[in-house]
Hints:
2 copies of one chain form a homodimer.
Chain A: H1 3-7, E1 10-13, E2 17-23, E3 26-33, H2 35-44, E4 49-56, H3 61-69, E5 72-80, E6 86-91, E7 98-104, E8 124-127, H4 132-141, E9 147-150, H5 154-159, H6 161-170, E10 173-177, H7 178-185, H8 190-199, E11 204-208, E12 214-217, E13 222-225, H9 239-254, H10 259-276, H11 290-304
Amino acid sequence: MTEKSTGQAVLIVGSVALDNVRTPFGEVREALGGAAVYSSIAASYFAPVRLVGVVGTDFPREHMQFLTSRNIDLAGMQIVSGLTFRWSGSYEFDLNQAHTLETQLNVFQHFCPDIPESYRDSNYVFLANIDPELQLRVLDQVQSPKLTVCDTMNFWIENKRDCLLEVLKRVDVAFMNDAEARQLCGTFSLVKAARQIRELGPPVVIVKKGEHGAVMVTDSAYFAAPSYPLEEVIDPTGAGDSFAGGFIGYIAATDDISEANLRKATIYGSTLASFNVQDFSLRRLASLTAGDIADRYCEFKQIAHFEALE
Amino acid sequence: MTEKSTGQAVLIVGSVALDNVRTPFGEVREALGGAAVYSSIAASYFAPVRLVGVVGTDFPREHMQFLTSRNIDLAGMQIVSGLTFRWSGSYEFDLNQAHTLETQLNVFQHFCPDIPESYRDSNYVFLANIDPELQLRVLDQVQSPKLTVCDTMNFWIENKRDCLLEVLKRVDVAFMNDAEARQLCGTFSLVKAARQIRELGPPVVIVKKGEHGAVMVTDSAYFAAPSYPLEEVIDPTGAGDSFAGGFIGYIAATDDISEANLRKATIYGSTLASFNVQDFSLRRLASLTAGDIADRYCEFKQIAHFEALE
């Protein structure tokens, strides 16, 4: 790896899981999943990825091989005696809302993200949804990243609020979905919530709204990204993670954190998320070409622009 | 009025009402309202308007004067012995959903839209939300409009479905909100619903999604218009009507039904709707300047565009 591409690698820390998922369109069992996996695969279309996570000794070898084949460095992947984290969930026809049926933390319960020495110079860092204490631990270990991005979930908002607020003080970009933003701020208005989250620290807030797209709020911009118009969402699992992965992967690849580039990154995030939900697990996300991604990005322009349309 | 501006006038047919509205931000009583009023005021910023509606003899003279002052031709306004249509509604913190407290149809119950001879050459026609039988009656009376636009509501979808389907076969543009589109098509997916509505007749379908903006679907385009990011919506009454009025008013003014212009019209519709919800009744909508409208239109460009941003 050249000096340049090393500098632009994305460090991703989060869960690696085996998922059972049921939606109105079918189901999968023991499928590769987890926030760090979805985001790493998405980011890998743009930049080399360094994944820090944990799996049990039962974790299928072919999954490791698959991740490696996608230019994902697994030097930071801990393999611990025991079973891999498992999540079982289902979705009704309103596919915006996951219903967790079962969570078996297994080896993930005692996960402690130790960032390998060789990863600590990472300029782009994505803290996928894990305990905010662990997110802080990662922030303590990286040297001077150009951009840090975090995600979270309702559980931490309820149970580790102070710790999460500490994370928000220290990151550059906070991702949240609409329900989480409302919950954190105690307000129905997402516009108000986005402002309030920015006031908690992160200069950039991205609120994901599922079928309604996403908004990115900075000190100078309010950018509304549409969602890609799919008649059917087959499996929304990992949509938010592939969004964040596409977002930070594109920024790392371009090494440009200007507002104009953050907008494009938001659309690339939406692009990756839109592919992800078109099939179960990583079936669609794993087999994209650069042309697929470029074509859909252009489609987003046709969807969103209303003047000077090319 | 010159020959040219006559040709570009917008004919609007619908309700004229006195509203009692309560939202978490306050209330108004006996305020000027009704779909035809909201849409006419919005359209009047772009083009001359010909309003066909009915009021009772109790309808305040100052409201008539106000409408006339906005370049709205009232030759088609019927004044009938009795009381004006009254609607009472309230909104909770989720301002997307109106709760009707009381409807007094009064003179509106026997409203029969007779289009004055001088209006029958109107090129641009908006059938605001009224009984689809009456909408058909209007379509029978106009000569050969360039663009007909309809709106509707859940009551007609439930109770006059066949008649509504007949309207949809005959109009060029159908407006519906998200709940109505889902109800009409029996599907949760708005993308699917928009396609299905197009298959019922109208070449252009616009689905309004409140705080999530609107989508316009044609045979060649899927255009997602964001909503304007307001921290507080004071009173959503008339939002959909001012949207439709701004939309058709802009098209009439430009006399251009190309897809590119329909997109711009959708943003002008969103612009007018966004002003409308910033205050009760017509307080904000009635006092806009051309500069207010142009500035907000430009803001929409900043909100939606992600490449070649000026």
